[in-house]
Design goal:
alpha+beta; single chain; 3 domains; 236 residues; binds uracil; Alpha-Beta Plaits; Structural Genomics Hypothetical 15.5 Kd Protein In mrcA-pckA Intergenic Region, Chain A; nine-stranded mixed β-sheet; elongated
């Protein structure tokens, strides 16, 4: 790919703006030698104002989504993309969220510009465990663990039962729920079906990848070993 297009696609500016950056001598090799737009140079050997380029296409980011922001670009109000630097919001191909979390759900959210990776993670065959911690409005009634694990639980207006889910009880109103599907508002609807209400909901892990150490609203790029953890069983 031509350098102007490559750099513009990373969100550094329009092609016209990037062409100007070349003319201004802002784009160099690691030794500070000025590069020209038609040079053939590897991504890793390009510097802009002395700084390495952002990572090439094919990235996966993890974010600790705060409450009050939504996942769709079309939603009014603050969206998760607003938490990324402007350049990341202007990349082409664009970043998309891997599934969604509700406005009132916090925790681990992935974003990627890699369509194949997105499908690999959300594919039912990947069987990725999504781990949620919830606080409830009322004490558990007692049969929830068995009901959620049964593989026969039906949600209202659905035609197929939920796959077995694992409920760990920390306290009568504080639980961890591990599911392998991603149905619409699934966790809230599962508790609603038992006559309860989810007060707070946080996704703490996907497989063995957790938000540990990431502040609300913060994000980081995943390395290959982080991505592998997504596909590991949360129990292993
Ligand atoms: N289940 C829900 O109810 N909400 C989410 O955001 C995720 C899972």
């Amino acid at each position: 790919m031509r350098l102007v297009k490559l750099i513009a696609n990373l969100g550094y500016g329009s092609r016209k703006e990037v062409a100007w950056m070349f003319r201004e001598g802002r784009i160099t090799d690691p030794d500070g030698e000025v590069l020209y737009a038609d040079d053939k140079v590897e991504h890793a050997h390009i510097r802009i104002d002395g700084e390495p380029l952002d990572p090439p296409t094919g990235i996966v980011l993890m974010m600790n989504k705060p409450l009050g922001v939504t996942c769709s670009r079309k939603d009014p109000g603050r969206v998760v993309y607003d938490l990324l630097p402007l350049r990341y919001r202007q990349r082409s191909p664009a970043l998309s969220t891997v599934g969604r979390l509700d406005r009132d759900t916090s925790g681990l959210l992935l974003l990627t510009d890699d369509g194949a990776m997105l499908h690999r993670i959300i594919s039912p065959r990947a069987n990725v465990t999504k781990v949620y911690e919830a606080t409830l409005a009322q004490d558990l009634r007692g049969d929830e663990q068995a009901l959620f694990a049964s593989g026969t639980m039906m949600l209202e207006s659905e035609t197929t039962p939920l796959l077995p889910a694992k409920l760990d009880v920390f306290a009568p109103r504080h639980v961890r729920l591990s599911i392998t599907e991603g149905r619409y508002h699934q966790v809230r609807r599962m508790f609603a079906a038992t006559g309860n209400h989810v007060d707070t909901l946080q996704r703490t892990a996907l497989g063995r990848l957790s938000t540990d150490g990431l502040q609300a609203g913060a994000w980081r790029q995943l390395e290959t070993n982080d991505i592998a953890q997504i596909f590991e069983s949360a129990d292993s």
